[in-house]
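Hello, quick one for you while I still have it in my head. A protein chain has come my way and I'm curious about its shape. I'm sending you its amino acid sequence along with the backbone structure tokens. I'd be grateful if you could look everything over and explain what you see. Here's the protein in full, and shout if anything looks odd to you:
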Amino acid sequence: MTIASSTTRRRSTTRPRSTSRRREVTTMKQKLQHLLRLALRPAPRHTTLFNGQLLDQKREDSYVVMHQMGLIR
């Protein structure tokens, strides 16, 4: 048996890796595209509700403090 015949035997017994590597590249490409799509979306806006009671409380607190300081009689 020569060296050339032994290498050809090894090559014929191994599976071609091109299909599995292609599949890995395709899935990684899809994952990257998905991440990029998420990054391009605008961030969700959280709407803040108007809190009238809190506004009245802060207004009364500031009025009391200004009255104690002597700015308002």
In short: The helical segments are 3-13, 18-40, 52-69. Residues 18-40 form the longest helix (23 residues). Residues 66 and 72 are 6 Å apart (CA to CA). The chain has a mean pLDDT of 76.
